[in-house]
Each structure stands twice: as C-alpha cells, then as structure tokens.
C-alpha cells in the first residue's frame, strides 16, 4: 500500500470522527468549524500536490509557495480548534465561579 492510498483511506475514519463530534452536540462550535476546515486543507493539498508533480516534477513539500499556501488551511484549522476549546474552558470556569 502506498502513501497516497493510505491518505485516501484515512479520510473515512476522519469523516466518522466529524460525524460523531457533530452529532454529539457537545463540541464547541468554533472547534467543530476548525475540524471541518481541515477538510479544506485536504481538498487544497491534493490538487496542489498534483500540480507540484506535473509542473515542477517535485513533491508538494519541495515547492515552497504551494506548500505554504496549502499549509495556511492547516494552520487556520488548528487555530480555530484551539480557540473553540479555549472559549469552552473559559465559559466552564465562569459558570463554576458563578455557582460558587
């Protein structure tokens, strides 16, 4: 099995993860958006990798401007997940303080 096949197969467990996180209703909204933005990263990375290979004869990791452009979506995803859970922790602490 090559890395491209493994990459494609790994999408199914992630989609299952998103389904459960969405269905639970317990995931902070901003964090959930961040998890979905990761799909945009995947959607951008695949054509960028193909473009890097066909036009430059290199893997995506070796074409800085393409790699960096794709990585922006990964960074955005991570920021949204962290901010979403940070907001949830702050709200939880605030609600516990109000109860005490």
What does this entry look like structurally?
By secondary structure, this protein is mainly alpha-helical. It has one domain. Helices cover 86% and strands 0% of the residues. It has three helices and no strands. It has helices at 3-24, 29-56, 64-99. Helix 2 runs antiparallel to helix 3 (64-99). The chain is elongated, with a radius of gyration of 18 Å. The termini are far apart. The model has no long low-confidence stretch (mean pLDDT 92).
Summarize the topology:
Layout: H1 3-24, H2 29-56, H3 64-99
Helix pairs in contact: 2-3
Rounded average pLDDT: 92
Uncertain stretches: none
| Helix-and-strand structural type | mainly alpha
Query: Based on CA inertia axes, which overall geometry fits?
Result: elongated
Order of helices and strands: HHH
User: Main sheet?
Assistant: none
How large is the radius of gyration? 18 Å
Which terms summarize this structure?
100 residues; mainly alpha; 0% strand; elongated
